[in-house]
Amino acid sequence: MKSSDKQFSALGLAWELGYTIAVPLVALAILGRFLDKKLGTAPWLLLAGILVSVTVSSWAVYKKTLDIIGK
Question: What is the pTM of this model?
Fold first, then answer.
C-alpha cells in the first residue's frame, strides 16, 4: 500500500469516526432540547439525549475498532 493510500485511508477513518460521534450527539441534543421546551422538563431530556448519544457513539466506535483489529 502506498503512503498516499494510507493517508487517504486514515483520513477516511477520521471522517467516519467524526460523523459517528457528531451526528447522534447533535440529533439527540436537539431532540432533547425540543422536547424539554414542549414538556417543560428542562434540562433533563437534553441531558438524557446527550447520555444516549454518548452510549450509541461509544458502541459504534467500539464496533468499528473491532472491525479494524479483525482485518
Answer: 0.86
